Amino acid sequence: MRPVHGTGVPAAKTWHKWRQILPALRLARGPLGLNRSRLDLLEKIMACVPGDLLATGPDCELIVHVSNARLAEMTNRDGDKTVTRLISELVALRLLARKSSPNGKRYMRQAPDGSRTAYGLDLAPLLARMPEIAGLAEAAELEAETCRRLRERCSLMLRQIEATDAAGDLLAEARRVLRRKPVAGDLCALLARLATFLPEPEAQDVRHEQGAVRTEMPATGHPGGTAPQNGCHKYPRQNPSDRFASSELSEASKRTLRTARHPRPSAPRW
Where does residue 168 rank: exposed (0-12), middle (13-18), buried (19+ CB within 10 A)? Predict the structure, then answer.
C-alpha cells in the first residue's frame, strides 16, 4: 500500500490534506459534482499517503496502490464493485487518474538501482486543480455567509410584518422558504417582496441592502453556490485566501517530507 512517485506537475507546491484540501472539497463539492460517497472515497485514498502534506514535484509521492477490497473495507462497504464505480466517477470528474499496470493490478516495483515504478491511483489531477478548487471554496464560503445574513434579515422583517397582520399568503410562503436551504437569489427575491409591506423609508433601506448583497455575491459556477458542510469548523477560521493557499516547499521542508516518508532504520537494540 506504499505510494510512490506520481506524475505531478513541475512546480513544487504543497497542500495540507486535512486543513486545506479536504475542507475545500467539502465547500466546493456542489460545483465539483462530489456527493458524500465520492468525497469519502477520495478522503480515504488521500489517507493512504503518509504524512499530512500532498505536494507536486519529482520528489513527491502521489500514486497509491491500495486495492479496491481494502478501500471497500476502509469505507465500510460490502464489496468492491461500488468502489470501482466511484473511482471511475472520480476519474471522470478529473480528480483522480489511473496509472494502469500491464496486468491491471496496483503495485510498486523497485529496480536494482533504487528507482521505483508504481501503478495505481494517481492524485496528481486533484493537486493540479487545487487552485480552481480553492477559488470555488472561497466563493462558496462567501455565499454561505451572505445567505446567513439574508436569512436573519428576512426573519426580522417577517416578525415585523406579522405584527401588522398585512399579508397572510406571503407570510406562509416566507416561512416555507426559510424552513428550507434557500440560495442567495431566492432570499433576495423574498426580501424584496417583504419590503413592499414596510413603510417607504425602511423599504428603501432594504433595496439599498439588496444592491450591496448582489455586488458581494460570488460566481460559483452553479445556481446558488454551496453551503459549508459539517466538519469544516474543527480548524481555526482564517482568511479564505490564506486558508486554501498553497505554499512553496523549502529545501528543509523537502528533507523533512522525505524523512517522514522514508525513515532511516534505527540501530538494533542489543
Answer: exposed
Q: Which residues contact 8 (CB under 8 A, 6 or more apart)?
A: 56, 57, 58, 60, 62, 124, 127
User: What DSSP character marks residue 219?
Assistant: -
What is the average per-residue pLDDT within 22-28? Answer: 95
Whether 180 and 143 have beta carbons less than 8 Å apart is answered as no
Q: Quote the DSSP letter at residue 265.
A: P
Taking only Cα atoms into account, the Rg of the chain, rounded to an integer number of angstroms, comes to: 24
Q: 7, 16, 126, 129: which is closest to 63 by C-alpha?
A: 7
How sure is the predictor about 256, in pLDDT bands with cuts at 50, 70 and 90?
very low
Nearest to 212 by CA among 188, 229, 231, 195: 188
User: What are the structural domains, with CATH classification, of the chain?
Assistant: 4-128+245-261 (1.10.10), 142-216 (no CATH)
pTM of the model: 0.69
Q: How is residue 192 written as a grid cell?
A: 424584496
Residues 9 and 126: their CA atoms lie apart, in Å, by 11
Bridge partners, residue 107, by sequence: 119
What is the DSSP secondary structure assignment for residue 135, as one 8-state letter?
H
For the chain, helix (H) and strand (E) counts, in that order, are: 12, 8
Q: What are the two backbone dihedrals, phi and then psi, of residue 111, each rounded to the nearest 5 degrees?
A: -85, 165
The CA distance from 77 to 38, in Å, is: 13
